[in-house]
Amino acid sequence: MRAGGRRYQRCPGVVAFSKRPEVRRWADERLNGECTDLTAVPPDVLRSAFAGQYVWVHRSWSPVADLGTLEDVAREEIAGLERSVSAGR
Questions:
Q1: How far apart are CA 72 and CA 82, in angstroms?
Q2: Is residue 23 part of a domain?
């Protein structure tokens, strides 16, 4: 909104209760050795990945008009990321 946008949708965050057996079972079934935590990934790589994914998801219905603002948002998101409990490949 700060860059002159308007709200198209609201997506509340997902809450996963990691102590529940069914959640742990689901997570264990998806472990395949290709993912790792993000502690060793440099912040600029994470920032670029976040921005690239955002551009890709929104390309067809709400394209990014200001890449500088997206870069600022990506920087803020990465700064708050719990990298030791986040995973990617």
A1: 18
A2: no
Q: First vs last Cα of the chain: how many Å apart?
A: 31
How many folded domains does the chain comprise? 1
What per-residue string of b and e applies to 41-72 under the rule 16 or more CB within 10 Å gives b?
beeeebbeebbeeeeeeeeeeeeeeeeeebee
> Alpha helices of 13-85 — where are they, by DSSP H?
21-30, 43-58, 67-79
**Domain-located, residue 17:** no
* pLDDT tens digits along 18-74: 889 998 888 887 776 777 889 999 999 999 999 999 999 989 988 998 999 999 999
21 assigned to some structural domain: no
